[in-house]
Structures are given as C-alpha cells and as structure tokens.
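Can you make up a polypeptide sequence alongside its tokenized fold?
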Amino acid sequence: MTNILNRLLPRPKKVEERGGFLTLSAGARAFTQDEFAEKLAAYLFRGNFSFADTIEGTALTLKIDEAIENTEAYVIDIDKDITVTAGGKNGIMSALQTLKDIAEFVDDGIKFPCCCIEDAPYKPYRGVHLYLPPVYMMDEFLVLLDTLASLKYNKIILEIGGCVQLDRHPEINLAWLKFCHEAHTYPTGPQGIQGSEAYWKDSTHVEISGGGLISKADLRRIVDHCKLLGIELIPELQSLSHAYYLTLAHPEIAERPHERWPDHYCPSCDESYELYFDVADELLEVIKPTMVHIGHDEVRVLGECPRCREKSGHELLAGDLNRIYNFYNARGIKIMMWGEMVQNFTSWKGMPTGGVEHNHVDKYGRIYHLPPTHESAYMIPKDILMLDWYYSMADGTECEFNEKGFTEMYGNFRGSQIANWDKRSRCPNVMGAEVSTWCIPSEYEIGFNGWFYELAFSAMVLWHDDFCDAKRGEYSRTAEEYMPVIMEKISGARAFDGTLDSLAELTVNNGEAKDITYRYGTIGEDVAAAVAKGGLTPLKEGEKLQLNGEAKKIVFFHATTGQPKDRLTTWAFMDKRPRIPARYVVDYEDGMCKTVMVEFGAAGHYGIAVGDMNSTDAYVRPDAHGNMLNDIDDANVVDEEKATLSPMYAPVDNWRGAEIYSCRFAEFDTPDGIRTVYSCEWENPYPGHKITGVRFVNEPFSHLEAQLYAVALAK
C-alpha cells in the first residue's frame, strides 16, 4: 500500500492499486446530478473542479446508483478519469472524503493514485459528542468537523446549554455566565460545586462555549458546515437533569429551589415545560434538526418536592418523557436520550444498576436516595433512540434495550476498550455509537484527554465488521500510526515528518553504547537509530547540547522516567505544575536565550510535550476488584457471587493516547526493557538568530524526571 493510501482511516475494505497517477489540471470538468455532491466536492477540492451540465468529456463523475442496497457503499475508480458510484448521498459523502485524503494538491491541479477502492461501513450511526466552541475558536471548530468527517463520522451531538444568545430569555444567558464564573472561582472548582449538596450534583459542563456565549449567527455557521459535510447535527437540549441553565435563571421551577445551584427542574411543574419548550423553539428555528438529544443522564433528584412526593419514580420519569416526546413529535423531530434511568440490570461487580432504587451512603459519606424509574420503559414511545452509556457496566445492556423494544447507540463509546464487541454489536438494535469528548473542543484539550487516539480507534471499530478482542493490538497500532495525519489535518503539517531528510542538524547526547533495536513508531527508523547511538543517555542539568544554525523549529527527543500518579483530564481543572518536569533553555549566538517549558501529556502554547519512557500500548481486562467504578455513587462494592470480568479493557498506560498524539514516538527494545522516546517540535520565536545549544533545568514542583536525549534543527 502506498504512502498516500496509508493516509486513509478507516482503511477501505478493498483497494486495487494500478500503479501510476492521474493528474488533473485546475478547472477539470466534473459532472453530477446531485447538488450536495457538487457542493461538497467544490469545498474539499478547493474549487479545482468545474461542474458541467453534461457528462461528456468530464474528468470526475459522481453518480448515485439506487441498485446498490447499502446507501453508504461506494466505489471509486481512478484510471484515465475518476468515476465515483455510491448507493446514496451518504456514500457520496464517504467517497469524496476518501478521494480527498488520497489526493495530492500540486501547483497546476490535483494528483490521484490510479486505483479502485470499494468500501461500506459496518454501523450506520457514527457520532461524536462535542461542546459548543468558544466564539474565538469558531474557525478551528470547523476544521475539527472536517477532520471528523474524514474519519467517516456522520453525526455530531452538540451540547448547547445556556450558551447561545437568546432573544426570548436573555436572563438564562446572564444566569449561565454568572454560574460559569462562580464554578471557576469556587474554592475547589466546578467539582467542588458538584459536592456541595447532600447528593453528588450533575457535572457542571461550564466548558461549553468556553464559559461564554455565541451568537445565533455563529451557531448557524456550525449548522451550515455540518450540512455541507453531510453530517447530521443533533443539538443536545438537556431536560430534567443537567438543567442548570434553566433553574439558575428560574429557581421557582427547581425540584430543590432552596439550593444555590439547582440542577434539576420539577417534572410536576407546568412552568418547567413552558420555559424549556420556549427555549427549545427559539433554538430549533436556527438549527432545524431532524433529531434532538434531550439529555436525562445523572438524574439524582426526583420525587422530593411536595408536588412530586406522592408519585412514583416510574410515573414521574414517564410523564416527563412523554411530555417532551409529544412536543418534538408535533414538530416532526425524533428524540434520543441517555438511557440509564430506564435500565435495570446487574453490573459486572454484581450490583443492581440503572434506574433502580438508590438508598445508600455514597463513597463521600453522604446519604443518597433516588426512587426506581426503570418501569417507565414500558410507559414511553419505543422510537426514542437510547444512548447506552452504561454498556461499560455490564455485558448485554444492549440486549435489555432490545427486549424492551428500543434501538440504541452506545454512548460515551470507547472502541479501544469495549470487550466482546464482535458479539455485542451484532444485537439487531445496535445502530452504532458516539464518542464523547467532554471538553473545550480545542486541539490541546482533545489531544490531552486522549480523544484523537480514541476517535481514530473507534472510527475503525464502527466502520469495519471484523474487530474483536484479538485484534485490539493491531487496531491500536494503526490508530497510533495515524496520529500525525490527524495532527496535520487539525493544525497543519509539521516540519519534522519522522525522517532524517526533514532535519538539518541532529545532536545526540553520547553515552555508553547499548544493544538497542527499533520496534516501531512514528519517528522513522533512520532517526530513531541516530538518536539511539547515544545509548539513550540523558543530558544532565547544567550540561549543554551543542547546535550551530538557524531554524524555524527545534525538535526535542526526550521522555520521562515515570508519569503522574493519576490520569487527569481537563474537566478535573487540575494544577498543571506537577506535570511540568523540566524546562529547556535555548541559547543564541548573540547572547539571547529562550525558555521552553516541558509538559507531560500535551503541548501547550508555551512549550512542548513529553511522555513516559515506560509507556506501552497493551490493554488488560480487570476483575471485579479492580479500580474501575460504575459511577460517582459506586463505593466499589462487589457481590462476589454475581461479579464477572469487566466489560471493558483498561489501557496499561492511561496517558498513551495523549502521549502519541502530542508527539511522534519510537519504541525500542533495550537491555532495560521496552523504552519509548518522544519527539516534539517547538516553534523558534527568533528564526533569524543562530542557535548555539540547549540546556536542561529540572522543575522542583514536579516529581517527574525528564530525560533529554537529542535536539535537532528542522529544515
């Protein structure tokens, strides 16, 4: 397979390479009878095609063949011209994304490898859950959508909250802005607010739109871009739970109105629905969706207020869902919801789970009570699409939904971790899955949280029909090797492409020669061998790696001897200082110097990323006594007689996804075991000044120890 075809993920099912290339000049004629195909092709190929009214003499033909049963199936035939045949609009979308990824833009047009590609997806629903971006990130967000479309994701669930400027209810916007400020300034941050009541409150999600507001015009840009890409945009307009945006502005509708930050509205209060429906109507005018996500996860308060106290949990939940269903159904809109409150099963730890009665002391020592709600499943319409995020708590949750008559998507999906996918995914009601990001949709946060790796892995799992536990390692390696391609799609090509040809000068810290052999990685074998000649000997504090030249970018080859104790994510709002093991000082010939901060797991705007030298891509499957909890209320209680293995594999290195996205990497077999070296680029702020060397300074606040092996100037 050529390097160009290696740029495809998921990899096509059938590829016939014919050798040679087809080069089309700018303005080459193209033909299609489908308006969507014409617009998408014009966008992806930067206007290089000129669409004609007739098929004669065209270099690119896009056509839909209704005889193809799978509307997402497609065939690309490239020889003397290009013919794309698909079963429907979605097949055209996928085919054009594939064609774009194998294309090379040249000075006078576009070059394509001569080949025939046939492909079709395993699952029809392939989604990603995202927060609304901050207004200053709007252009970056559209690029992210482009990247997700190239990975063949076709649904975006966009969480709105109180972050779109509302004409009818500006008080909601003001209350939301105040809440975001209070959450960030609370003594223990947003998670402190979650622990401020007798129950564990809903996640605050104050990262939506960066804690600010966006205009309807900006929201419309997102809507229009999704339409251009052929992606279905599903707004998440949360109801019942996660209702901060409603109850903070109108505490009179809250189930617990005495709270400072109420998170649930009262389902027996007509005013709750009058407000929710009015807000929804205003947003529906802008988005015009065919489906809405209505939330309903983390329901922790129900049946408390005088209006609700005499009703059962089943009755309260069913009444709420039916009222919301009827509102959207009258507008021709389907709904999806987080489905845990209509589930009733035994978790892998042997405990009753789902919409069962909760009446215990949680792991924070607080008394917790919630009435059962699972019988509401028999009291609501069956065409509500269930998001099954409790799939990670037991094998067979999809079968329960199937028996109750619901179709489902796995929610908060991690294709890299699910066990028995080959069996579970074949349950007839499983339509696909969505990967949730739960962070500001920036390259830094998505990369640091490991989501780019997961998005690549899960894209393959949802597209191919052959994934199973035995193939986890193969899929992991493919996803890892694709990270530089995703990085290029998100933020542009890097100067260092993994080869010596892209380096002008490489200085290695020399030490004792060792028997070190290259295993694999996104640092090429030639560069890895050059770095390893120094025996992977780290630079000592106070010493200097000599350089002599100018460069726009400097490449550092390094690692740490360990990793942070806990795997933190951006929604933990953590202090970064423990993850800053060192700083490098770049010296210039004219006496200037510049400090480069080193951050574990991600590359911030001020520095470079590093990873653990002991990292591995292995996965293990925990038993019931492992530390994988069901939920925040799970005190890790195990019923020995009913406990089983976890339905999820756990990565041996929880930081691996972040490490291999932020950095190129090379794994070695050494006398001390497998060792991983990372390379990360730093943009030199003084490209016209000659660099004389790099020094190393440890940071005392962090227990991590950085090891700098080599430095290079990029061409």
Q: What stands out?
A: The chain is about 25% helix and 25% strand. The longest strand covers residues 14-25. The first helix runs from residue 35 to 44.
